[in-house]
Specification:
The chain contains 10 helices and 22 strands. By secondary structure, the chain is an alpha+beta fold. A hairpin with a 4-residue loop joins strand 4 and strand 5. Helix content is 30%, strand content 31%.
Length: 401
């Protein structure tokens, strides 16, 4: 698979477009100005203070700065790094502890924080609170076993190591060197935490567009094209420091007469990704409506609706639209970064074999998503339930901030 990344600075925003075989498959957007939400980015680490405990939901609220209270799962208290303890219970009001933002603010919801810290590199993740040595399931089985054997000696009681998919293209010594760097970073942060005051930000996550480059799969990457000179300089500094071997992928595109958005139709792709309607080649379409609690996707036959000569024709036509809708729904979920609970209302099928084929096809398309997306089931009302891991705000929320 051929991959490309485009990075633009337009309309007061930095937008990153991921292309696979010349199709835009992901869009991420962040404000240049930096509002209050951008201050609390995924991965930021703070010394917070417990402001409230709600036992009936097993949660606490932790203040990471004045007036910013974040949801905290009480289970995390088992591995908490306290900088000040107010009582003998596992967690008490007034306790000060190290927390990391695990989910950014969404609409009216404040960020979620965790005491299980993670330090992410290109090839590995160090996980405080989870002490196992794990390997990405997307790495071939034989290579997974080799990695587990290679790094089994790193097991300890404080943290674990997860080997990322990118490691399959790296030399073992490169992976080991990065793990040592992550260990040093973790130990240094724990030491510093003991000498800092409450509300201190111990670690600021890199800007979203840098984090995107850090996390992307480099296999098949042909180029990373930046359409702004200042942005190019900043990204080049990152590559020189963190990915010098990939520096030749970085390209500056600076043609004011034919800008990047014209060359790759990025503006058109963005407008379509923010639209409620997504057309299918068969003439049908999807209606995509995010709500506070979940996202609903409705499949419509649209222009494909016509008089059928038999019941079999009706079933075959519905299945054809549904199969294309399954492929497009999976694409739109990734493109728009939809997450949480997603309900898809496909066109009704009367044949059990057709339904099984639809679900199998949809499941296979969801499996291509680099973020975990799971087809749960089809309800009695014929709605297909999907869950997708929440990592960052969906595109429509990012564009509003």
């Amino acid at each position: 698979m051929k991959r490309k990344i485009l990075i633009e600075k337009t309309d007061g925003r930095i937008r990153t477009y991921f292309l696979e075989d010349d199709d835009i498959v992901e869009i991420h957007s962040t404000s240049i100005s930096g509002n209050s939400d951008d201050r609390h980015r995924l991965g930021d680490i703070y010394i917070g203070k417990v402001s409230n405990i709600v036992p009936n939901i097993g949660a606490a609220f932790i203040e990471i700065e004045k007036g910013v209270n974040c949801y905290y799962d009480m289970k995390d208290a088992d591995h908490a790094i306290f900088t000040r303890k107010s009582g003998k219970k596992a967690l008490c009001i007034g306790d000060e502890l190290v927390v990391q933002i695990s989910r950014e603010a969404v609409k009216s919801k404040a960020p979620t924080v965790t005491g299980n810290l993670s330090f992410t590199g290109r090839y590995a993740v160090l996980t405080h609170g989870n002490t196992r040595i794990g390997v990405s399931s997307k790495i071939p089985k034989a290579m997974r076993e080799t990695f587990k054997k290679e790094f089994s000696g790193l097991e300890n009681d404080a943290y674990g190591i997860i080997i990322r998919t990118n490691a399959k293209d790296a030399r073992p010594e490169e992976v080991r060197a990065e793990i040592r760097a992550l260990q040093n970073e973790y130990e240094d942060l724990v030491r510093r935490a003991g000498t800092r005051t409450c509300f201190t930000c111990l670690k600021s996550a890199p800007p979203a567009y840098i984090a995107d480059l850090k996390n992307v799969y480099m296999e098949g990457m042909e180029s990373i094209i930046v359409g702004d000179p200042d942005l190019y300089k900043r990204i080049r500094l990152y590559f020189q420091s963190e990915l010098p071997e990939k520096l030749d992928l970085l390209k500056l595109y600076d043609n004011p007469l034919f800008p990047l958005d014209k060359l790759y139709s990025t503006r058109t792709a963005l407008d379509k990704a923010l639209s409620e309607k997504a057309w299918l080649k068969t003439g049908g379409y999807l209606i995509i409506q995010p709500t506070e609690a979940l996202t609903v996707i409705d499949v419509n036959s649209g222009k494909t609706a016509a008089k059928a000569r038999s019941k079999a024709d009706v079933e075959a036509g519905a299945l054809k639209v549904n199969l294309e809708a399954a492929r497009e729904a999976a694409r739109q979920i990734r493109l728009r970064n939809l997450s949480g609970i997603i309900l898809i209302d496909f066109i009704n099928l009367s044949d059990a074999e057709s339904t099984a084929r639809l679900l199998s096809e949809f499941r296979s398309h969801l499996a291509k998503d680099p973020i975990q997306a799971t087809l749960v089931d089809m309800t009695a009302l014929g709605l297909v339930e999907v869950t997708r891991k929440k990592v960052r705000r969906p595109l429509h929320e990012e564009e509003k901030n």
